[in-house]
Amino acid sequence: MLPKTTLMRLVRNSWCATATRGKFRHIRHIRSYSSAAAAAAGTGGDVEDKVVRASPSAIKGEVDVCYDLVQRQGRGFVYLGSSRAAPSSSHYQLTRDLARQIHTLYPSSTCWSGAGPGLMEACTLGARDAGARVAGLKIYWGEALEDDDAVSKTTHPYLTHEEHAVLYFFSARKHGLVDAGVRAQETDRTAFIALPGGVGTLDELLEVLVLRQLKRVDAPRGTEHPLPPALVMNYDGVYDGLLQFLQEDARRFGYVSEGELDEHLLVCATNEEAVNAIKAFYA
Q: What GO terms fall under cellular component here (predicted)?
């Protein structure tokens, strides 16, 4: 059984924040479960089970926040990339230029990202260079509000309250980013663009790949819009190892079919390749 101090820390930390009318509303979804959980702690009940079962309502609340933001800001190009790239790096500059080119061609499509630093910032600034709408779903880092500098972690240096939301759950953010890249109507111009990154970027990229394989990012039921393109920006061969594993090693053992990935991922070494591919898709 979890110690009561550990239990209360878990309860305290389960929250999300979203922008509402210019002010942040802090929603402690699981705090309402604290009485029952604390009672279980004192009577020998299954405390861990009670705490975990509180999270679905919290996640649902955050998913609703994401969907509301997508409805307000509009769908568009979803960029997945590292938070660690410095502004002076070549990948940062290439990403900013890529977003500028894409959103110059498609100014009515929103630029979506994880609203973090690094390449997430680069694509946002590139879209702004083109005068396009921008939006982001930011993850709150750290402990409970009362234990941290919550103000800096629930605000953004340049996105307005109307342009982003702050979330606790990564699963909710992925729901929101996928929704932002789905073509809800024929005129939507969207795509998923995987920039260089690490574990978090791979998590998001592979989720998009699986959803495409299962046709879970298809247009709404009753429509016939094709799946939006998914691009992998292989700057400087950063994804060569991953691609070799998926296209050769996994295929050698029969875990991936011949040509299966070609149907779902378009690998681009340069911005020119990526822009031309998007233009051809929407021609």
A: cytosol
